[in-house]
Amino acid sequence: MMTIREFAPEVERQKIAWIGDGNNVLHDLMLAATILGHDVRYATPDGHEPLSSVLNDAEAFAAESGGTVKRSSSVEEAVEDATVIYTDVFVSMGQEDDKNKLRDFEGYSVTRELCSSADDDHIFLHCLPANRGVEVTDEVMDGPHSRVWDQAENRLHAQKSLLTRLLNDAAWDTYGEVMGVEGW
User: Fold this and answer.
1) Which of 77, 83, 98, 118 is the 20 to 30 Å CA partner of 162?
2) Residues 161 and 83 in one domain
3) Is the pLDDT confidence value at 59 over 90?
4) Mean predicted confidence (pLDDT) in 16-20
5) Residues 93 and 159 in one domain
6) pLDDT for 143-173, tens place per residue?
7) Are residues 82 and 158 in the same domain?
């Protein structure tokens, strides 16, 4: 969400298109985006939808914030007028030998042609590492709309901040224990 905000701060209500697996990245994206009042359209193959519990939560957040979450019937429908196009690996770590799963994603690759119906100023995101030629083409990954490297940099800063917070909390908890301060 940080990268989306960084590269399109003037867009109050983003139209976010997700293409691919209904995995943990989509789950987090749906929840964060709908809390912030954005519209999420996702295209996933049958059998690879997001968890219904996460979808229910995202729908509840969207109802409160004015955003929307909707499964698209095609990748083309999902991407139409999108301000953000997002994908992830189709086969997660540990599932590389599952060739049947990869077949389910034929036609789900993000290509220049697919992106042509998106907003002229759209951005492309991928949480990396990407399998070039599988979920995204080189042309999109290295193209003018790609913000994957900015996204990776932002993730680094977010992770450093979280780590600092966790270590500081642990240090203060230890200090409280050593000093005998209850509830420190």
Assistant:
1) 83
2) no
3) yes
4) 98
5) no
6) 999 999 999 999 999 999 999 988 888 777 7
7) no
Token duo for residue 106: 């034929």
* pLDDT band at residue 78 under the 50/70/90 scheme: very high
**Whether residue 164 sits in one domain with residue 118:** no
| Alpha carbons 34 and 57: distance in angstroms, whole number | 9
Q: Kindly state whether residues 158 and 109 are assigned to the same domain.
A: no
HEC profile for the chain? CHHHHHHCCCCCCCEEEEECCCCHHHHHHHHHHHHCCCEEEEECCCCCCCCHHHHHHHHHHHHHHCCEEEECCCHHHHHCCCCEEEECCCCCCCCCCCHHHHHHCCCCCECHHHHCCCCCCCEEEECCCCCECCCECHHHHCCCCECHHHHHHHHHHHHHHHHHHHHHHHHHHHHHHHHCCCCC
Is the domain of 95 the same as that of 127? Answer: yes
The pLDDT score that the predictor gives to residue 182 is 65
- Same-domain check for residues 141 and 167: no
Residue 175 has pLDDT above 70, yes or no: no
**What range does the domain containing 125 cover?**
2-146
Look up residue 128 and give its amino acid.
L
